[in-house]
Design brief:
The protein has 387 residues and is an alpha+beta fold. Helices cover 35% and strands 18% of the residues. The protein is built from 14 helices and ten strands. Strand 4 and strand 5 form a beta hairpin. The longest helix has 19 residues. The radius of gyration is 25 Å and the shape is globular.
């Protein structure tokens, strides 16, 4: 009997030793976010309690056409609470967009991928959460767990569990998810002690008229400095909200704009500045004189003559915000949608859009009409929509 026990112990030891020697690359990291309350009961964790879209077919899922179109444009946060399951969206543009994103990152690496040293742990946490938890749970028909990572079923590529570096992590996220990610950390404080969040890392393939790389390291107030009315109406509430949003809570909002070109990656050209140009740093007077106003009017007329209806796009973003539970970094993400004006006619909301365009100057920040270039494109676009 003693001999049998010794033999059995030897077998168990050998099995345990073999398991311990398994290659690390096939041992998927265990991501644990659960916690126990005071009674020892394990609470449901919003980060892991992801509702799977088991029957989801990306190729037959159309982009949404519901937009925040109002007859008067009011500058507000307009946030909606969502579950962590709803932080990303995928549709039938996925495969095409992945090709576009790769091309843009290859052509504009510095403009699309950046990470300050202080944000490296947060980048790894976001990557770990996306690859080991969210993607395979939420979209099991697109991302399948395999040894060493997950398989992207659309392009047959393996997404590794452990990226080689923070920059490699950002690049992979940009290649495999049709969403742009910006990570923010409380890198400074306000005079009254509130944390001020700064942009410290990003993968941004579809900026809409701004340079993300120039905004790296900036606080929210500087990032939004060109936006009319931001300082007076949103700056304080935005800073407070970013400081107070709890782990496990997620919010979303949507916006809309009209661009006179079909480009997805654009670091300029979508906004109009005091000099009458789409480059706020362009040479030109800005002293408020009559001559100066005449020059601005001429710039606007020139741009209006260049508007081509078939090139115009109704552009919108599905924006989400949530906090990572370990590093406590904030993740701001946005997915970009584009619709031709012919699509708008086909989908039947031309009058709603026309009224929203006319309402840019009627809300709480009338200057938004100028900033969004409504003074350039509104007349020909509204005429087309109502034709």
């Amino acid at each position: 009997m003693e001999l049998v026990a010794v033999c059995l112990l030897s077998v168990i030891s050998a099995v345990l030793l073999a398991l311990w020697k398994l290659p690390r690359q096939i041992q998927r990291p265990i991501v644990s976010y659960s916690s126990e309350d005071n009674d020892g009961v394990i609470e449901k964790d919003p980060y892991t309690e992801i509702e799977p879209l088991t029957g989801f077919a990306w190729s037959t899922t159309s982009p949404p056409t519901t937009l925040p179109l109002k007859p008067k444009y009011h500058l507000t946060m307009a946030l909606e609470n969502i579950s962590m399951s709803d932080i990303l969206a995928i549709d039938n543009t996925y495969a095409e967009r992945m090709d576009i994103r790769r091309s843009i990152m290859d052509t504009h690496p510095d403009a699309t991928l950046r990470c300050n040293t202080v944000c490296e742990p947060a980048v790894h946490e976001l990557y770990d959460y996306m690859t080991n938890v969210f993607l395979p749970k939420r979209f099991p028909t697109l991302y399948r767990p395999i040894p060493g990572g997950i398989l992207n079923i659309v392009n047959s590529e393996t997404i590794p569990s452990r990226p080689a570096s923070p920059m490699a992590a950002l690049r992979t996220l940009g290649e495999q998810i049709d969403t742009d990610f910006l990570l923010l950390l409380p890198s400074s404080s306000s005079p009254d002690g509130w944390p001020i969040y700064h942009l410290e890392a990003f993968v941004t393939c579809f900026p809409s008229g701004f340079s993300t790389q120039k905004k790296l390291g900036m606080p929210l107030s500087e990032i939004h400095a060109p936006v009319p009315g931001y300082k007076a109406k949103l700056e304080k509430s935005m800073d407070r909200f970013f400081a107070k949003i709890e782990c496990g809570r997620a919010v979303k909002r949507s916006n809309w704009a009209l661009t006179t070109h079909p480009l997805l990656f654009t670091e300029g050209g979508n906004h109009l500045y005091a000099n009458g140009k789409t480059d706020m740093y362009a040479d030109g007077k800005d002293d408020g004189s009559e001559d100066d106003n005449g020059e601005v009017d001429e710039h606007i007329l020139t741009q209006r003559r260049e508007v081509v209806i078939k090139d115009c796009r109704l552009r919108s973003e599905r924006q989400t915000l949530f906090r990572l539970p370990k590093t406590k970094a904030l993740v701001f993400s946005f997915k970009t949608y584009q619709h031709t004006l012919a699509d708008v006619k086909k989908d039947g909301y031309t009058e709603q859009l026309a009224e929203a365009m006319e309402g840019l100057a009627k809300g709480n920040v009338p200057e938004m009409d100028f900033y969004k270039r409504g003074v350039v494109w509104r007349e020909p676009v509204v005429e087309y929509l109502r034709s």
